[in-house]
Amino acid sequence: MTSAAPIWPVTALRRDDGGLEIGGCEVAALAVEFGTPLYVVDEADFRARAAEFRTVFGEAFARYGAKVDVYYAGKAFLCSKVASWMRKEKLGVDVASAGELELALRGGMPPRRITFHGNNKSDAEIARALEVGVGRIVVDSLEEIGLLWEEAESRGVKASVLVRVATGVHAGGHEHIATAHEDQKFGLSLSSGAAAEALALCHEAPSLTLLGIHTHLGSQIQTADAFRESANRMLGLRAEFARSSGYEMPEVDLGGGYGIAYAPGGEALPIRKAARAIASSMAKALKASKGSWPRISIEPGRAIAGPAGITVYTVGVTKTVQLKGRKRRRYVSVDGGMSDNMRPITYGAEYTAELASRLSDADLIRSRVVGKHCESGDILVRDIDLPEDIARGDLLAVPVTGAYGRVMANNYNALPRPAVVAVKKGKTQLLIRRDTQEDLLAWDVTR
């Protein structure tokens, strides 16, 4: 159940001179004003995708009288302004660290609409979550239940919790982003009984309020089948716990992982069809078990942020390599690389790129877009046909980098992390400034 999907932000267009424009702003002008590499986020696209999830899932479950909450997965890309956008679009935010929590709060997100994740929350993170009154804390281990229980009791408060369940449904792309199988660090196993044990502990703890169960299958899931199977297993656990305890948990969080396209002709999970399929499957399961509908929540991240962002690079050195036979490959080096996009070297992720600053009628040559780091694996786009006249100073744009670009960026080889600028109706707003050389030197402690 996949379909071809666009890979450029909804407002992207080509000007008569061949220059790329997004959000009414010329990319070449953005490069001059903010420098490159540069992350560009289409605010209208970003917010429209968030609203679509809220509307589509809300309608699909409303057919059965069920309610749905959408929490934006902040790990995809979070800053205070994004948190503000999500608040205005009536979404919540899920966070996985104290830093993400503070960004969400700075953006005006009400604490009750924040979900706190993490497999290894520190004492300080637990304390801060309780201090500000986050709406839901997802407990990830039996040990964490005890820690949270004690901290909440010492503060005289009750912590609202979800138990993260490893359902055993394996879905998604690279093994590093599959998170519901049982031999990994997240959650409590359904098949071993650890999840049921955790539910009993949370239910019995006087300082905890057990709201329900949570799961997350992984990322880049391209069919609804895995979501349906996982949801049905979650409902089975809920029904079993209701029979044993007399308590029917009011919430079930199905997580995120909705797949998107990264290259022309690439496929994405159709959100409307997926929502209807999941809702229908859950309705049948609940009818069979004679259970009542829980409040459903989902956590899309990449599917909101990814297609709404691009990265702009300036071309530096180009080099043509003669391969076997008569084949050639042009290496096109840009001023960023694995420090601003770790996904190709980490997950083997595939991207595309386009000349963004001018027209070209030159012949195409098989090319490889590479970064400037001291690693032969520093490859942004492994195989792509680009105009043979690409040269130093040209701009290249790589789409679908709104998720897991800036948040995974690093300072390898002492490179500054790029800025992030939002564009909308011809106006710009700097969301995150570029690292400076002074920033890098300030971290260095001299004696």
Give the terminus-to-terminus CA distance.
Answer: 61 Å
Please give the domain count. Answer: 2
Q: Round the Cα radius of gyration to an integer and report it.
A: 23 Å
- Tell me, what's the shape? globular
Helix content: 25-40%
Give average pLDDT, whole number.
94
**CATH homologous superfamily annotation of the largest domain:** Alanine racemase
Please state roughly what percent of the residues sit in beta strands, choosing from under 5%, 5-15%, 15-25%, 25-35%, 35-45% or over 45%: 25-35%
CATH architecture label of the largest domain: Alpha-Beta Barrel
| Main sheet attributes: strand count, strand direction, barrel closure | 9 strands, mixed
What is the overall number of helices? 12
The total of beta strands comes to: 23
CATH topology of the largest domain: TIM Barrel
CATH class type of the largest domain: Alpha Beta
Provide the low-confidence segments as ranges: 176-181
Give the helix/strand class: alpha/beta
